[in-house]
Write the structure tokens for this entry.
Amino acid sequence: MTPPVYGVVAEFKDLTALVTAAHAARTAGYTRFEAYSPFPSEALTEAVGHPRTRLPVAIFIGGLLGGITGYLLQFVTAVYTYPINIGGRPLHSWPMFIPVTFECTILGAALTAVFGMLARNGLPMPYHPLFHVPRFARASRDLFFLCIQARDPLFDPDQVNRFLRTLNATGVQEVPR
């Protein structure tokens, strides 16, 4: 059963307050929360504690599969499907397969990177529950937000609301689903 709210969001006046709040949320045991800032911050990324992604491994495997597919396509075509003996050269002449194999490796890795990133980020997402919060529109300009999501195991709306108010938030409100 899905909770009736998406979470509780708190508004902060500057990046330092947001980073402090994110550290406090992690220390309190919350694991499902997001911080929103108008500009990137390494300190904020560390405070939120994003887990390391397995996307590089997937990209490597995608490149490997692309290269193997490109090589096998040429091999099967040149050796089995249309074997043409030109000037006594061997049918399996691997040096001529290298350019296409390289390009298929790059194509496989690039497509895996793009689609893996889209899947990992949950995109495309034309709608997000935080759009119900009127002041959240300023998250890309001059305000900072921390949202503790309802899917967090420790989530209790009243307790989270009190917790965020202790972090000197300028505003705290529930986010409807």
Summary: Residues 55-81 form the longest helix (27 residues). Residues 55-120 form one domain.
